[in-house]
Amino acid sequence: MWLQSYCWRKKLCHLLGDTPDLTRRLFWIQRAVRLFSFSSTMASQALASLSEGGSQISLSTSGEHGRSSIPGFFLGDVQGLKSGRKMGALSLAVLRARGLHQWTLKSWGRFSDPPQLRLSGPSTRAPVRTAATLSLEPAGRSLWDEPLRIAVHRLAPRQPVTLRAALRDEKGALFRAHARYRADAAGRLDLQRAPALGGSFAGLEPMGLLWAMQPDRPFWRLLKRDVQTPFVVELEVLDGHEPDQGKLLASAVHERHFLAPGVRRVPVREGRVRATLFLPPGPGPFPGIVDLFGAGGGLLEYRASLLAGKGFAVMALAYYNYDDLPKHTDVFHLEYFEEAVNYLLCHPQVKGPGIGLLGTSKGGEISLAMASFLKGISAAVIINGSVAAVRAPIYYKDESVPPVPVMRNRMKMTKDGIMDVMDALKSPLEEPKSFIPVERSDTTFLFLVGQDDHNWQSEFYASEASKRLQAHGKQKPQVICYPEAGHYIEVPYFPLCKTGWHNLVGAPILYGGEPRAHAMAQLDAWKQLQIFFHKHLGGKEGTIAAKL
Ligand SMILES: CCCCCC/C=C\CCCCCCCC(=O)SCCNC(=O)CCNC(=O)[C@H](O)C(C)(C)COP(=O)(O)OP(=O)(O)OC[C@H]1O[C@@H](n2cnc3c(N)ncnc32)[C@H](O)[C@@H]1OP(=O)(O)O
């Protein structure tokens, strides 16, 4: 047996050569199974040899472990494989594995420990009809903002199951969601057609397993720090409706990426500007956008990298707490931002005559100030920004906008002991000097507003900016209000951060939002801002009706 196996391994190695192409290797193993009644033991050794050859698959068939490191491989039949029975299951496993060419399976088990397969002896083989498979479309990998089609096949008719999803962020925080489902009469479950019966969400929510994830740390927010690596999402199908107890029926690992194929990431260290520019594939020139996040500073690239995949040259701009920029700041000088705008405008792959701004929260406030004082800005999307200077004055040359006073006595505590600072800022109508002079701007604006934003009064600010622009004969801005959406309107499928640490307040605060409505808002906001930028920065034209 050993000799036979050895010969087969040699033969396979010869056939496969040194190719790193896993699909080709698996193809030959599959052929061997079919054509030469290749035994399962030999096949498992051959598969194991793939990992020796440096492929991404690792295989463990040893009795001590009793389970495979290939998700969904054994489906309760490890003993059968060990006994050397010829297995159609192998070819099935190979077929499954062929879809896994992007998986980093050695990382399996890094997340929450999946329920152990209960393998008590040879008689515990699962019947074929319960050899469930989890199918993902696209298979293996997708972009973070792409929808993922999740389906389970080969369940028993009307079988109750629980689906779980988990990912770990770069700081080790675990984000998880689960939902209960029931298969149809044919034993199929398609999340595009089947409503969740409860769990982290309910109803027809094909992407709920992502947007409903919650962190295992209080006040933690999902952030992607390195856009050159994906988030690795583990998906599991468990028997029954107990999220932590059901037998594992099938599982998959899926990579969610932040860089579309061909998008180039260019670190920028030009003059004082500290940023990262993302350029779409192709020669350009492309419509240019400066992307600004809010309080806390740093350099967050994930929105810029995804947006570059839609045909824009997007520069994620740091303005403090990054590289050699100040760690903290009590004042904003627009000359820094002017330098960044000019850098982008002069870039050979950026289409003029003007660029766009995309700002969230404090980044929205700064974007409004940039559009009011600086030249060369054609379009600006303000996501839950303030129309007043907050906590720090904004300077440009010899002019300044002082911050609105903070009224600490208006801060409230929720019944859960979380600070609600929504009413803590004095209205800019009572402090006109703190009102950013938007009426000076010739920029076209889109305001995206979460109506349940508790960070500050975003809807009021958008409405006042709109009134002021119109009162001065300027173009009426587009204002889209999202009911039950909170402060952190992110790219699609980011889980809601309803309560989080606030760097300025020095305590956790309420950011607001209801998970489902917030998720829908993120999806729509992402479409709307792309349409807006394409229209006003000279890209493709088109409109998509807001869903809400
Ligand atoms: C006296 C004052 C009274 C004020 C009252 C005001 C009342 C109302 C006014 C409201 C005014 C609000 C104005 C601003 C509104 C906003 O802008 S909302 C925030 C939006 N912010 C952003 O979009 C940018 C977010 N960026 C960041 O937070 C940071 O850049 C970064 C965390 C991404 C990276 O910073 P860095 O310094 O590199 O991080 P670390 O060193 O790793 O961690 C620093 C601390 O942050 C904690 N932290 C890190 N990651 C997370 C996370 N994912 N979720 C939650 N917390 C995180 C980390 O633990 C560190 O905390 P400690 O130092 O350990 O305590």
UniProtKB/TrEMBL annotation:
Superkingdom of origin: Eukaryota
Domain Acyl-CoA thioester hydrolase/bile acid-CoA amino acid N-acetyltransferase positions: 145-270
GO biological process: acyl-CoA metabolic process; fatty acid metabolic process
Record-linked InterPro entries: AB_hydrolase_fold, BAAT_C, Thio_Ohase/aa_AcTrfase, Thio_Ohase/BAAT_N
UniProt keyword Lipid metabolism present: yes
Signal peptide coordinates: none
A Pfam family per the record: BAAT_C
SUPFAM superfamilies: alpha/beta-Hydrolases (SSF53474)
Keyword vocabulary terms for this entry: Fatty acid metabolism, Lipid metabolism
A GO MF term: fatty acyl-CoA hydrolase activity
Family affiliation: Belongs to the C/M/P thioester hydrolase family.
Protein name: Acyl-CoA thioesterase 6
Originating species: Cavia porcellus
GN (gene name): LOC100730202
